[in-house]
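Structure tokens please, single chain.
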Amino acid sequence: MSIQFREEIKNIQPYKPGKPIEDVKREYNIQKVVKLASNENPLGCSPKVKEAIIQALDKLAIYPDGNNTDLKNLLAKKHSVEVDNILPSSGSDEMIDLIAKTFINKDDEVIMADITFPRYMQTTIMMGGTPVIVPLKEFTFDLDGILEKISPKTKIIWICNPNNPTGTMITEKDFVEFLDKVPPYVLVVSDEAYREYVTRDDYPFNSIELTKKYENLLVMRTFSKAYGLAGIRVAYTVGHKEVLQYINRVRGPFNVSSLAQVAAMAAIEDDEFLKKAYDTNLQGKNFLYEEFDRLSLHYVPSETNHILVDVGRDGQEVFMELQKRGVIIRPMTGNYIRVSIGTMEENRFFVENLKEVLKKGQ
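Here you go.
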């Protein structure tokens, strides 16, 4: 091909989402398929969200509010910050991309864990930056190891808290001590996609309050997980207004759709649905822990809606065998798989089929 692409994207692999249910049905000619691969909310979304979307359908011919005015006002009030301290985006994926475009120059160093959300790596390479990898320590971010890697060329540190795919978290005490040691010229991004599922009291639930003290801290939140709006793409980031103003310069003018804006506003007001999502997840997590214990499978205790588990066999092989039986999970490195926590019916279906797969491989 004569058309030349940018050298930076030469070795970037496209992001691989969880396999769609309909694809598995067609491929294996089966009717019942349970998807536990993409950390989606098995309860769907709040009924109030559906009502809000229906009310907004008559306005589809009109461009969205490019400033996200009502959504930003609601979020600012909820989090006790100024409107200028909030910037919505089309999911966290878009914000990761925008942050990279805004701040990473060629050869800038970007620090991240070796096992974490892959988009941090992809966007760094896309902009010509240099990924600096710090291995996890007991499946958790090694904050001391990250501090040791900071150099004059460091531009961004990516922290996924709780982490995807390990489900582990950084405590408030450790996070604050870490922020105190990070130079002010280094941007720290805390991706909190799974915070609504956290059960531990020592999690930094007040991270948005920390942005008032640490001007180099950005906190990302999403409506994709516990709020069940993964299909509509809406998230927001909180931080110092000057930092967000720079990001806003590269943001598309209508990046958050009208339906996404009204959906987010309805979702964040429904505490009852959020509590139900939390309770369902906790029940399912405890059930899966018990089943893994019975099977003598090692798993990483999780503060998210997914569990990383060592199945004692090649994860890709287990992934393929489960698919044939109508269960979609996520294969990871080596013998590990990541399973999303579903409804109790879905969890039981997964366990039944996992037992068959593991028994077959003995």
